[in-house]
Design brief:
Elements: H1 2-5, H2 8-27, E1 29-32, E2 38-45, H3 53-56, H4 64-75, E3 79-89, E4 95-100, H5 108-126, E5 131-136, E6 140-146, H6 153-159, H7 171-183, E7 191-196, H8 204-216, E8 220-226, H9 231-234, E9 240-244, H10 248-262
Parallel strand pairs: 4-5, 4-7, 7-8, 8-9
Antiparallel strand pairs: 1-3, 2-3, 5-6
């Protein structure tokens, strides 16, 4: 708290991150059918726990043919039953955050991007999931590998304390992310989230490696583009691409679904 009190920029980032987390929680639960929950309607099936009482009454009929007919409907999954709708939490693996810290990210875009990263990392920590953060410019600038649930406020502040400067290159952070995926077994099911203003290019070789992992290992790659990024550069490797103007007051609701999706 003392660090936040004396650092108005970081305090603003924390406030934006808190807003993102709250908005993300409204999207976080997925609807699953069938599930334990409220009755949505009537459908056809063979689940004894949900078959209508009127259908089950046939099993108590004194007429043998009626009983056999009812059994046939149940076994053939043709009996009328309740259609249920409930909510179950989606569980995810580790996350790898690639955070653009180049000079073009300076100012409010930098605060906005770090708020997104803080919301993701805080949520991952609360869910006892591992995370890996790679801050980059035209090379890998710093990285943090945190075990499940082991993160602290000091670790989070250290991971997000670097100021924007220098140029931008996408190959180094993606190459590092691929190294993590290939060498650390616990990260094999990780999602990659790139936060950038898009002022760089991605080589065909690295893009091909990312897409190979997406195809063969079910890797998910998400991009949050701040400002007017060149979507044609990153769209070929992205499962989803979110573009925001850089104003958290207007764009929090745009990014919140991603917070929920990957966290």
């Amino acid at each position: 708290w003392a660090l936040l009190r004396d650092n108005p920029v970081m305090r603003h980032i924390a406030e934006m991150a808190g807003r993102l987390q709250r908005l993300g929680q409204t999207h976080k639960r997925c609807q699953v059918t069938p599930a334990v929950g409220r009755i949505k309607g009537i459908t056809v099936g063979g689940d004894l726990n949900r078959i209508l009482p009127a259908e089950l009454a046939g099993l108590r009929s004194k007429n043998r043919l009626h009983r056999l007919s009812t059994l046939s409907k149940i076994m053939g999954k043709r009996a009328l039953q309740y259609e249920m709708q409930g909510e179950e939490s989606e569980t995810r693996g580790p996350i790898i955050v690639l955070l653009d810290e180049s000079g073009s990210m300076g100012g409010e875009p930098e605060q906005w991007s770090k708020a997104v990263a803080l919301a993701l990392l805080t949520t991952a920590t609360q869910q006892h999931r591992m995370w890996f953060l790679c801050g980059f410019t035209d090379s890998v600038r710093h990285e943090h590998h945190i075990e499940a649930g082991a993160s602290t406020a000091d670790v989070l502040l250290a991971a997000l304390s670097m100021r924007a400067s220098g140029g931008t290159a996408f190959d180094p952070p993606f190459q590092r992310a691929l190294e993590v995926l290939n060498t650390l077994v616990v990260f094999r099911k990780a999602d990659i989230i790139l936060v950038t203003d898009g002022e760089a290019s991605l080589s065909e070789d690295v893009a091909g490696q990312v897409n190979q992992h997406r195809k063969e290992q079910s890797l998910h790659c998400y991009v949050i583009g701040i400002g007017h990024i060149r979507t044609n550069t990153l769209a070929p490797i992205a499962d989803a691409l979110y573009t925001v103007s850089g104003s958290p007051e207007h764009d929090s609701a745009t990014v919140a679904p991603l917070i929920a999706q990957v966290a």
